[in-house]
Amino acid sequence: MVTDEYVTVIENELGEVTKYSDVEGIYSSNFSNAYKKGTKFYSIKGISSEEAIAIQEPDGKYRKLVNNGKYGK
User: What is the pTM of this model?
Assistant: First the structure.
């Protein structure tokens, strides 16, 4: 889930959005309904990547995303 919080200390690149869709459905891989294909996401220093990650916004800032459980469950 996308939050209103930004982070400044990121660590490792974890991957990138591999599919974008704003159509309701069940998708595999690293899909997003908010960020375009190719948008990179990162671990946040001091926070487990299972709890939260950061995604790079078009303006270069890093927005915090929190894990609310597996999508579609």
Answer: 0.78
| Domain residue ranges of the chain, discontinuous segments joined by + | 2-66
d(CA 45, CA 20): 27
Angle 4-26-7 from CA coordinates, rounded to 5°: 20
Share the mean pLDDT of the chain. 85
Q: Which of 1, 22, 4 has its CA nearest to residue 62?
A: 4
Is 44 within 8 Å of 64 (Cβ atoms)? yes
| Contacts of 61 by beta carbon, 8 Å cutoff, 6+ apart | 6
48-52, Cβ contacts within 8 angstroms, sequence gap of 24 or more: 49/14
